[in-house]
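Budget justification aside, the reviewers requested a transparent look at the raw inputs and outputs of the sequence design task funded under Objective 1. We therefore reproduce one unedited record. The lines immediately below are the structure tokens for a 370-residue chain.
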């Protein structure tokens, strides 16, 4: 692959730089052994940017993100910045990236690695082999709809209100992402709403069905109410391949699906924008976990969620499925060998540090991938 793909790396705060350090070793391994070369640029975001520049994200870093082929993000925040006003908080840096890059599709895979099947709160037979992808609409719906607010009524009581609103283009673009990605997986999409009680849900269902009929007939489509979906996720999650849903339901359902896997240190995510004229989508990849101030600086954080975010980047931004599979297989191998950071270890068993987990991954890549 040409070496001109640009990645902006934003390690952030707390354990962000620690886990990113291990991913950079893997990026170097791929450059050396698989000719997967990227131009890597590193920038500051969150508390790190606040300390240096007084803002959680500078205009220059924002411009770099807009020009990059993908952004690889760590995590931001920490007690040091907790008392700052809302607009200055480290998390505003991430929100600005999401907003200005117009990242409307949030991808959350829930994959259970066989050796970790016991970490789930569900029975092993329910989650063994699980590999599903939840796509949550991220920039519309009730979290952004107007009018919204709290008003005082003439009798002195108060009324709080939000507006759930979706337009056909907003639904079409996120549904198109779901259909496209399903084709690279098991070719099945479940569209989730509450068309039984919400007008926006009726429009959601009609729009997804129309798009399917017009452009994606070769993908299997079913519709499901959100409350049933929550139930089905814990009853028999393996019935799903790709789930696409709105911002509010996606918020709940993706957290529920994430916990099927049992560990926060094992959860990657991607957020995608619209394709440009060349077909390139703006994209940001990040672990689901935060900056973990309780363990930051101790060298014990699990780097695998960040590494899986890199694997998603290879797969979804650069179409390098074989290389992404190699990363995932290396993770599977290391876990099968019993290598564990503290967060995924059985109580009382031996654990490795962040960098030792990195060593193990590089060793597995050496064995599997050269
Ligand atoms: P958190 O995800 O940082 O930590 C929750 C718990 O999980 C902690 O006990 C932590 O030690 C553990 N944990 C998380 N990631 C781990 C890993 N890779 N390896 C081992 N253990 C891990 O959530 P929190 O404690 O609610 O938030 C801490 C800070 O992170 C806050 O400032 C919050 O605002 C911020 N945050 C940032 C993001 C982001 O950058 N996207 C997301 C969530 C929270």
């Amino acid at each position: 692959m040409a070496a001109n793909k640009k990645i902006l790396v934003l390690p952030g705060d707390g354990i962000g730089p620690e886990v990113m350090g291990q991913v950079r070793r893997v990026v170097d391994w791929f450059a050396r052994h698989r000719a997967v070369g990227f131009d890597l640029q590193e920038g500051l975001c969150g508390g790190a940017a606040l300390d240096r520049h007084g803002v959680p994200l500078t205009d220059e870093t924002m411009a770099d993100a807009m020009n990059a082929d993908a952004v690889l993000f760590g995590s931001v925040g920490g007690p040091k910045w907790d008392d700052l006003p809302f607009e200055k908080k480290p998390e505003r840096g991430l929100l600005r990236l999401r907003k200005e890059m117009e990242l409307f599709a949030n991808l959350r895979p829930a994959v259970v690695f066989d050796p970790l099947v016991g970490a789930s709160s569900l029975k092993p037979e329910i989650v063994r082999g699980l590999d599903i992808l939840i796509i949550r609409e991220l920039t519309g719906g009730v979290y952004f709809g107007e009018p919204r607010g709290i008003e005082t009524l003439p009798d002195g009581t108060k009324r709080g209100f939000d507006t759930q609103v979706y337009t056909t283009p907003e639904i079409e673009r996120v549904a198109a992402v779901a259909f496209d990605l399903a084709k690279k997986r098991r070719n099945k999409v479940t569209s989730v709403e509450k068309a039984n009680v919400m007008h926006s849900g009726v429009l959601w269902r009609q729009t997804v069905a129309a798009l399917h009929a017009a452009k994606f007939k070769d993908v299997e489509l079913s519709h499901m109410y959100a409350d049933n979906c929550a139930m089905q996720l814990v009853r028999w999650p393996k019935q799903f391949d790709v789930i696409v849903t709105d911002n509010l339901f996606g918020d709940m359902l993706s957290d529920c699906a994430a916990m099927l896997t049992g560990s926060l240190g094992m959860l990657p995510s991607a957020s995608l924008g619209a394709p440009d004229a060349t077909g390139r989508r703006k994209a940001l990849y990040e672990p689901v976990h935060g900056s973990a101030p309780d363990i930051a600086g101790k060298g014990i954080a699990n780097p695998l969620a960040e590494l899986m975010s890199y694997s998603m980047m290879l797969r979804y931004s650069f179409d390098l499925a074989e290389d992404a599979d190699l990363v995932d297989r290396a993770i599977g191998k290391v876990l099968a060998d019993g290598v564990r950071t503290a967060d995924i270890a059985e109580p009382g068993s031996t654990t490795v540090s962040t960098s030792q987990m990195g060593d193990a991954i590089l060793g597995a890549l050496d064995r599997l991938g050269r």
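The pocket of nicotinamide-adenine-dinucleotide is lined by residues 15, 19, 75-78, 91, 94, 264-265, 286, 289-295, 301-302, 305, 343 (CB under 6 Å). Residues 16-33 form the longest helix (18 residues). Computational costs for records of this kind are itemized in the attached budget.
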